């Protein structure tokens, strides 16, 4: 058959990128060989599998072996590979660090296609294009910072909290890709430990079950999911009423929502939310508040290139090696969670400080 003749079979034009090539099916790459010894073609093939195929042409001109990437700086990625997107550089750095540390992270099994589905589940589908373009995968999720989210055009404070709580649920469930429930259980009174795993769709189904079906569609794109409802102490029935666009004059309807909300989250969580709301200096959660980028002060310029050892507070949801259970829900202990919950703070004080994992080598997006 000549080259110009039509041939049946092969892959359909609509086939996804993972069908055309997968790391496991690539015969030219021996995963037992250290990354530093990979050839130029093996490195380029890996970049394509990893969602960074647009940089292959320049990489082929620059890279001699895997060691070239391991020895490079983020500035080298930008200059030699034309990698202008800060989150692409961060993605590459995290992957290279995983090759050298040889520590298997469950989050690395979740690719950037899965992350777009996860955004659907937590009620933030409007950011799918930005996350997809940045190739944000499971490994990147656990190292996202406030400024990373702002780069992804996520400016709403409520949406930042939504993502923070959703990442926390992933941590507690060891990055199980199916930990969020897309359908509520048959039980009429689910426990808080079940509700914390509810997707945005589950919350909308619950609204229909408590006779608020006409307001349920207002939760699309709101970022409301079970993790946010249970774990964020400032998220109250008033916050939910605002998101549902229930008019303030409909007092009976709002009272009905407050009763149903209290039954959903349980007495302990409701007490915690009340204590947090009554605390001095409490700022109510609004639907319009925006997050401002974290700016470096004059004294911090010397640390631009050499990062400080403890940067866990910069992450949206810091990783910690310990956890405790509050209200039947597992919560991670971290210095960044101080003030997150009055009940949690008291329980943390009764325990020894957790040993926080060293994260000094985690790259930022510079």
What would your notes on this structure say?
The chain has 366 residues and is mainly alpha-helical. Among the domains are: 65 residues, Transcription Factor, Ets-1 (DNA polymerase, domain 1), CATH 1.10.150; 136 residues, Orthogonal Bundle (DNA polymerase, domain 1). 42% of the residues lie in helices and 2% in strands. The chain has a two-stranded antiparallel ribbon. It is elongated.
Which CATH class of the domain at 157-292 applies here? Mainly Alpha
Characterize the main sheet: 2 strands, antiparallel
CATH architecture of the domain at 157-292: Orthogonal Bundle
Q: Output the CATH topology of the domain at 157-292.
A: DNA polymerase, domain 1
Mean pLDDT, all residues:
80
CATH superfamily of the domain at 157-292: Transcription Factor, Ets-1
Count of helical stretches: 18
Cα radius of gyration in angstroms = 23 Å
Apparent shape: elongated
What is the first-to-last residue Cα distance? Answer: 52 Å
As laid out across the biggest beta sheet, the strand order is: 1-2
Q: In sequence order, what are the helices and strands, one letter per element?
A: HHHHHHHHHHHHHHHHHEEH
Query: Which structural class do you get from the secondary structure elements?
Result: mainly alpha
The total beta strand count reads 2
Strand content: under 5%
Regions with little confidence, pLDDT below 50 for 5+ residues? 6-28, 298-313, 321-328, 330-360
Helix content: 40-55%
Pfam families: SAM_1, SAM_2
Biased composition (Polar residues): 22-31
Domain SAM: 38-102, 115-173
InterPro entries: LIPB1/2_SAM_1 (IPR037617), LIPB1/2_SAM_2nd (IPR037618), LIPB1/2_SAM_3rd (IPR037619), Liprin (IPR029515), SAM (IPR001660), SAM/pointed_sf (IPR013761)
